[in-house]
Amino acid sequence: MESKKSDLLQGTLDLLILKTLASGALHGYAIAQRILITSRETLDVQQGSLYPALHRLERKKLVEAEWRESENGRMAKFYSLTKEGQKQLAAELDRWKVYSRAIGWVLEA
Amino acid sequence: MRLPWNKKDSDLDREVAYHLQSLADAFEREGLSKDEAMLRARREFGGVEQTKEKCRDERRWRVLPALVQDLSFGARMLRKTPGVTVAAVLSLALGIGATTAILSLVDAVLWRTLGVPHAEQLTEILWQSKGRPEGLFQGSSGSMFRSGPLDVADFFSRSTFDALRSRTGGRTEIAGHLHADDVSTSYSGMTSVAKLRPVSGNFFTMLGLQPTAGRLLMPTDDDPRATLTVVVSHVFWRRNLRGESGAVGRTLRINNRAYVIAGVAPEGFGGISVGDSTDLYTTIEHAPIMLQPDSWERKAAADPKSWFIQLLGRRAPGVVNEALTAELETLFQSTWVAQPKHPETAPSIRLQDASGGIGSLRREFGNPLILLFTLVGCVLLIACANIANLMLARADTRRKEVALRVSLGCSRSRLIRQFFTESAMLAVAGGLLSIFVAYATANFAVSLMPSNLRLVFEIDGRMILATLAVTAFTAMAFGLYPAWHATRVDAAPALKEGSGSVGGVKHTWVAPGKILVLAQVALGVLLVAAGVAFNAHLRQIVTRDTGFERTRLLMFDLRPGESGYHEARLGQFYFQLEQRLRNVAGVEAVGLARIRPMLGGGYWDDIQLPGRAKGIPTAVNFVTAGYLGALGVSILEGRGITESDVRTRSNVAVVSEDVAKVIGRSPLGLVVRMEDKPIEIVGVASRARYSRLTEQPNVIYVPNALTQDATTVLLRTATAPTQVLPGVRAAVAELDPNLPIVKAVTMQEQIATTLRRERLFAWLCGAFGVLALLLCMIGLYGVMSYATVRRTQEIGIRMALGASPGNVLRHVVREGLGVALAGCALGLPIAWWAAQKYVDYKRLGMQPLDPAILIWATVALAVSALVAVLGPAFRAASADPMKALRAE
Fold it and tell me: N or C: which end of chain B has fewer CB within 10 A?
């Protein structure tokens, strides 16, 4: 598979999805769009790779899914955070902040 | 059926479709055409099918659906050919079940250790000598067996035991015991017969056992003045004392004496030998036999020349056998009150590991059981080969299917798993069924073992584990190769073949299936030969001449000593008994003997002849005047034993004609010495078996002094022996209504009990042989019918071109028989070699394998092979050429 603008660090896709879902239920396409926009078009998630990640999170019961009518009138599968997912997000965020700060210190030293 | 995980699949399709559509919509808004937009969307999305596959991989029940698929598919394939499946499962069940049963038998007899802590420290103390050490002891009770050039015995004098025990403290703890014997018991009105083993007071402390209830015997119980106490086995406590905890401290009557029940032995303790059925333990001083004033044992206890105690010791940790042997030997020799007549026969101490128990059972059954185990392993192999053949044939018929799946991207490991699942299903089904077979076989085997053995055959964890192991092994053995073979398919040619073309079917003489059948037949020769050989051996023994007519003899034991008879009253009783029994209707002759004929054991001594340095080993029996007549032995020379010989206890004897042969002249008038008493030989009797059909010892009959506290009564009857039993009971009851008749059996039954080992062996081997024959037939039938079905087209062409049905028939039969005969040719030398190398004929007491038996086994296999191939051959020959040509 060819790489696009910026490759994601391993495991960060799960975090991005969780964060994106924190503001409300979204379907897969919307999640991809939202990540693209909020990262100011820096992070272009390979659209297809989103789904294995979503299914993985669903299996871990961090997100749940439901078929609903979407903004264009068609049925779409909407994902939303579970309680478990919110807890996981908070924990991951803390870990990420510590991690990125540490990386920052090292790189700026 | 729509399964939950299938629903998920369509969910995923819709989800991905939505995403693609949304992307395409966005591109369309940017001005692309509909088709271009969709193309762009697909590119942007990445590999659609790959993504879907990855999503499926993320699912939780990834393994299970595959397994369920495999299982249901496998079940469908097996159901397609029910006959073959049933045959396969049955042959597996028989193979695995028989193997497990024999395995558990081997385990119970050879491998299991005694139920005591640190059994590995236990050692049996024996002595060994080159020849009987004459003069060293006068009388003995115990067992003596040959080990190579040595005589090994297990009996010691009381004084030797005391010396060994008291002077080896700290390095070893030694306990003494006597042979277990039947006693009659009564507990709050409930009477039964049980086995009692007299032991020394330190017996249980030496074994390191803790009681279930009450206490075990202690050294203080050795005091003859102490209260009579008895320790009961856990089995006896549960069965005969109803498991009451209140039984401890109560009275158990043994041979009409009151014993206090001191305690109950722990549950896991099953005695000190394999299959030990001892239920009661008293100290030697308190044993019923010791309390009878006239018993030999009572007199023996005070006589250092009477050897009768068996010894069991526990080595202290760190004590090595060599040092202990040397120490015990010095002590042993210091206790002799006489020296052996021939110094080279002086005995030395021999220590034998007793972690698995004492006694002869291991010696007697060890080699046969290992042999049986090997044979049953061969049966299992043959069964496995059948399954492997079945799977191979099935794999072959599914070549196209496999090729299709491979070309559609199915991985090879997935295919192997599928095939393997099928054989594993067969194995599991066979394994489950085999538990019943194992039970039946084990019960059958136990029923052929001596009845006084208490062998434990519970389907316990170990047995289940063994079955599992065997099943897993068979699954691997017959599943892996066919699975590997089946998936090694070159897709293109496999897909092309079959659809009307003949060229694609390869026919070879060395197909894997045929090689398997060949190996089966080779093993079959071995098994059938073993079955025939051991049955021929049994037949040969059973039909051996006993020297007397055996269908009209009845015998039983009486133990007046236990009922208080002794000295003059005892002799009186025996005389009256003989008289009364002679008058019972149907009784032709009556005799009393100290040794029961055909008991399997007896009393041996060396008789000394004037002018001969070495004594003649001779079996001894003490008999009344009527005995020889009742047994049916005729007097060839001189006279028999008379009533007055018995009354006056005269020093005369009758010897068997074999003794005359050993001496080389008529022994009449000779004065021989036995136990240092002069005995005049007054008659020669015709030869008759003494203890078992497999031995023909010299026998000397000595007048019975009628001072023994127990006797065997032998009756010759006019009709069937059991018919006179009521009359006999009445006659004995007239004399003493409280005297029980013990061990009443006919001579035929008595002989049968001495042949249990031979029968166990012959019947099991015979069963294995028949099973092997059947399995070989199934295997050959399967391979040949599969081969002819595959070649239906070829046969059709041949017939269309003018081959007669007879030609086809001959062709198929020749091919099948060729495989069988090749197997025979391979099996014959293997069987011969194995029979020479691995069978201990001497120990089994049989003649070396007769080559004729091997030939017969080969013929049997060849004939059954012919029967097996006739079916497929006739089917092929009677095929309609037109139909055959069209067949796919």
Answer: N
Please identify every stretch of chain A with a pLDDT value under 50, giving residue numbers as ranges. Answer: 1-6
pLDDT value at position B231? 95
Contact B645, B703 (CB under 8 A): yes
Q: How many CB atoms are located within 10 Å of the residue B223 CB?
A: 12
Task: Give the CATH number of domain A12-108.
Answer: 1.10.10.10
- Minimum CA–CA partner of B23 in chain A: A29
B18 with A48: Cβ contact below 8 A: no
Chain B segment 27-66 residues within 8 A of A by beta carbon are 44-48, 50-52, 54-55, 57-60
How many CA atoms does the CB half-sphere of B550 hold within 13 Å? 20
Q: Residue A77: its chain B contacts at CB < 8 A?
A: 11, 14-15, 18
Instruction: Tell me if residue B570 falls in helix, strand or coil.
Output: helix
Distance from A28 to chain B by nearest Cα, in Å? 7
Kindly report the backbone phi and psi dihedral angles of residue A26, in degrees, each rounded to the nearest multiple of 5, phi listed first: -140, 155
**B363 interface with A at CB cutoff 8 Å:** no
Element (H, E) at B715: strand B711-717
B612: Cβ contacts below 8 Å, ≥ 6 apart? none
Select from B705, B709, B706 the least CA-distant residue to B563. B709
Contact: B51, A27; criterion CB under 8 Å: no
**pLDDT at res. B27:** 87
DSSP state, B714? Answer: E
B46/A48 Cβ within 8 A: yes
Is the CA virtual torsion B95, B96, B98, B102 positive or negative? Answer: positive
ipTM over 0.90: no
Do residues B104 and B438 lie in contact, with contact meaning Cβ atoms separated by under 8 Å? yes
0.80 exceeded by pTM: no
Burial class (CB in 10 A: 0-12, 13-18, 19+), B673: middle
Torsion B465-B466-B467-B470 (CA) sign: positive
Q: CA-CA distance, B133 to B674, in Å (whole number)?
A: 14
